[in-house]
Fold this protein.
Amino acid sequence: MTATFGRFLILASVLVSTTGAFIAYAAGAKRSPEGLKWSQRFAYAFAGLMVIATGVMEYALITHDFSVQYVAHVGSTQVPLWVTIVSLWSSLEGSILFWGFILGIYIAATTWVNRNQHQEYMPFAIGTWLSCGAFFSFLIAGPANPFLSVIPAPLEGPGPNPLLQNHLLMIIHPPMLYLGYVGMTIPFGFAAAALLRGRLGQSFLRPLRASLLLPWVFLTIAIMLGGWWAYEVLGWGGYWAWDPVENASLLPWLTATAALHSAIVMERRGVLKGWTVTLIQASFLLTILGTFMTRSGVFNSVHSFTQSAIGPTILIFLTAVLLFSVILLALRIDSLEAEGRIESAVSREGMFLVNNLFFVVFTFTVLVGTVFPLVVEAVKGKQMSVGRPYFDAMVVPVGTALLFLLGVGPALPWGKTSRKEMLRVLLPPLITGAVVLIIGYVLGVRSAWTLVTLLFGGYAAHVTLAQMWLPLRQRLKKGDAFAPALIDAQLRRGRRRFGGYVVHAGAVIVFVAIAVSSTMRTQQEVTLTRGQSTTFAGYTVTFTGTEERTEPHRQSTIAHFNISKPGGPSGGGTSGGGGGGTLITTMEPRMNQYAAMREPIGTPAVYSTIGRDYYLSIMNLQGDQAGILIINMPMVGWIWGAVLLMGAGGLIALIPARKRTYVVVPESAPTIDDEAIA
Amino acid sequence: MNRTVLIIGIIIVAAIVFVLFAGLGKDPQHIDSPLVGKPAPPFALKAVNTGETIDLESLRGKPVIVNFWATWCVPCYEEHPTLVANARQLPDVQFVGVVFNDTEDKINRFLAERGSAYPTLLDANGKTAIAYGVGGVPETYFINRAGTIVAKYEGPMSTEILQENLAKALR
């Protein structure tokens, strides 16, 4: 019954989205207000169907209705309620339904927000969104149908993928990623609408940018959560492995970040329109490519959704969207004429161009490294993998260059600048950079790349903070009182600008923390017998014993360690004594053997302090002996915090201005305050 | 119509689509073993269940199936009955189990509970597993009468898979 109802809803959504897409495109072509009204109704109907269908699936999961095939695959009466709820996205079919759910909400919300605006573009945008909706409905109705019936219904199911159950981060990482991925459909629809209409007016830039910024925020957080999860769970002591699926989430983030920047130049100078539209289209295409990577089973990765039938279907969709985008761009790029021009290379807008260039190089580097093994296998029939050394060697210089721009770009004024003015803005931050560099050197940093990162990071931090609070300082100079000036200049009028610099501040910290944590980490492998201890990086680690624990979905061996500050005679080197000193904490890394996995998975233990993480991972356990890997990693925790700061900055910039009127900025003499409005 | 955009775009699309289509249907987990077609690395290990030492060299002239496994590996539990049944049916083929990262008493308990039909060797320090490049358990190598590795299979085998690979060793 539930399964039949679910199938009916999905078939209805195929019908509604397809019809809606046709009506919307026709309304766009004929500029029919009545047609637009109808396409809006179809957009809401599609969202409604998706929401109800997802509700039906959740209901089936929670009531353990094993007559529904998806529930029979991932459900179990033995798992806690929260696991049952998140099972929706634990396996292929459910995750595609979840995709449709989020897409529906995005489409309906964007249609609602713009219901009385941008009538010129909206029909084409709705048509494009509903076309994507039609594809995903088709996917749910056919190759990845979660609503098939199982007759007779089994009495019990196996429960979801064990990896989903082993860390709470897995509850929020997938939805965040989906909000980021699926959300890229919206700016893609807007960009396609601009191309189909053959123009991109100033007033349309705001929804275009906002629709790109929202999924960007989600994607930023999702990428960080994925790294954090890998770090806390996988036990190799890192947060980024250039795994194809990690790369898949990074690629659209890179192009979207580039597009957010080029959109600013487009807004200020009326140039780079075709380029920005191309970047937005690329971001959406890369999310589809990423979905293909995770769901087709073609790439080897920790996200082992096994070989599935939807690979070819997604690939056909990807091909269709690629062709649609390329042909549309070729047809219309020339009609998005540039209204202004870039006057000087060494200027704010010039730096934006270089920034975009580096982001594109970054994207290509990662894309090539990810796809190269497939190319080699297709051409030569040989297997190979592209590993860390390639990515590190290619990405570190590009990343460092981006950090440099993060400092220099915002420091430079728009337009032409005199040499004297340039020196006045560029020189003072060098002092901060040098100070940070010296502090790092004194603290023991010797890696050349890290020292350069510290120099550029200090420089960028100076510029970012100065720019961030510039409107406030200007108000204070004018004689305004502090509190109203703060609220008005930073949070009301200058909110978007302020949010942007908050993102930059987060980014500077991320750059520095990545450089420091990867080059300053020290590690040691030791084998300890029960009762034995070793001292490493300021702590004494004592192995106190092991414990076996059996849970329904896994068997674990847990090793117990005491961590203490060395003191007394037993400190230093491996010793047989109790360790001595004062006990700080205990750590319990474990080895988990999940049913149906070939290899055991270690779960490390991490002791985090503000300055550094102390990381303990089991290499092997044999009787009374534990082989462990101890890693001392400075500044890792800063990465998570700083990425959250970036997300917060993005949200600040997103809050819509109270008045929806658009102030046209005179192009000749931009001051800081009109940037705040822009 | 901007021809440059169209041509560059179509080239990029064609390249991406070609590569991705070519990749469809391949199992990325599968790694061709460089050992296939090469002489099997020799080993002489003590059998847990019988106590005798088995030398691979001494098995020359018989097709040999070397199955790497461990008691902590769940898929090995699934595969075990298939191996035992086939070993009983195929007296002319020498089955050998090699266990690594494990202890003798656990192996003995496993075999007592689930039965055994061929020698199970303990690879105490994992040297043999390293020599064969074992990536995970279970993993099985098929060696022909001349002592050359002819096939490798990763993961639990069904009887069909076992027979299919064994056929290469019998040729």
Observations:
- Chain A has four domains: 1-165, 197-426, 437-520+647-677, 522-634.
